[in-house]
Amino acid sequence: MKRLLSAAVLGLALLGTAQAAIDTYEFASEAERERYRNLVEELRCPKCQNQNIADSDAPIAMDLRAQIFRMLEEGQSNEQIIDFLVSRYGDFVLYKPPVTARTLLLWYGPAGLLAGGFVLLGGILLRRRSKPGVIASGLSADEQQRLAALLNQTPVDKKD
Amino acid sequence: MKRLLLLLPLVVFLGVAVFLYRGLFLDPSELPSALIGKPLPAFSLPAVQDGKPLTDADLKGKPALVNVWATWCVACRVEHPVLNKLAKLGVTIYGVNYKDDNAAAQKWLVEFHDPYQLNINDARGTLGLDLGVYGAPETFLIDKDGIIRHKFVGVIDERVWREQLAPLYQALVDEAQP
């Protein structure tokens, strides 16, 4: 089983290198190659929706890689390249969606829920600590006094 | 007040249930076009038939379908007879021959009949890229000013036309009449 697994992992790793070798682009510098790699990895393929355009071998992903390479060579910035693609394919191509009114819940929902949970927890703890007697017995101040009086009487009762 | 608070988990549960239930019926592969409401991208490309230069200005004037097709696209073969029928009904259809071999495209139009009023030869796919095309067939609905009003991805069959596109097209035609 373990051997099979490692063979599969090795196979997958080789597959990655084989795919990456399909396009052969000559980059002017190592920095440019790095930018290219980052871009194709964070952009999503519009055709095969659960892959980025680096991994996909759909024709459109190939075209987009070529387009990104061309724009890099022309000296355009990452923002310009991403804007170019978003204006044609929409926010959909971004694996990291921008913060807009529509995505607010997506971006801040989890943090909001967590904060809400802490506030609730804090509230409960605070209430318990500030009036422990009231919470525990549900007695009013008057009733508590009577209770204390009754408790003080007990030793006297025992003497009898 | 305390009693009402006990209902809170139920309310939360119902909220989540409604949210997830709705999700069952959403199509995650549906990709809204970023170009709705925008004009057709500017282009200058040759026509498929005679190589005559065409620009975006040639597609303005009346509401139309802009159909992205190719001979390598199997689904386009299925769609083609429907387009022929629509053309016969008087629907204006422009073609974008996307990343195709021009000779093969010409042969196709002779063999299967030509429903297109104009056919743009986009051999390198530059217009396709500007249109946000990611496959074929794709069809855009443009109004008389060349503004993209709707995009349909996939094969237009009779049912799609009847139920989705015909009403939209008719609305554009009505809008174009003063």
Automatic annotation (TrEMBL), chain A:
GO terms for biological process: cytochrome complex assembly. InterPro entries: C-type_cytochrome_biogenesis, CcmH/CycL/Ccl2/NrfF_N, CcmH/CycL/NrfF/Ccl2_sf. The keyword Membrane applies. It comes from the Bacteria. One of its GO terms (molecular function) is metal ion binding. Residues 1-20 form the signal peptide. Belongs to the CcmH/CycL/Ccl2/NrfF family. This is Cytochrome c-type biogenesis protein.
Automatic annotation (TrEMBL), chain B:
GO terms for cellular component: outer membrane-bounded periplasmic space; plasma membrane. It is a single-pass membrane protein. PROSITE patterns: THIOREDOXIN_1, THIOREDOXIN_2. Residues 34-178 form the Thioredoxin domain. InterPro entries: Periplasmic_diS_OxRdtase_DsbE, Redoxin, Thioredoxin-like_sf, Thioredoxin_CS, Thioredoxin_domain, Thioredoxin_ResA/DsbE_sf. GO terms for molecular function: disulfide oxidoreductase activity. CDD domains: TlpA_like_DsbE. The keyword Iron-sulfur does not apply. Keywords: Cytochrome c-type biogenesis, Disulfide bond, Redox-active center. It is found in: Cell inner membrane. One of its GO terms (biological process) is cytochrome complex assembly. This is Cytochrome c biogenesis protein CcmG, thiol:disulfide interchange protein DsbE. It comes from Pseudomonas peli.
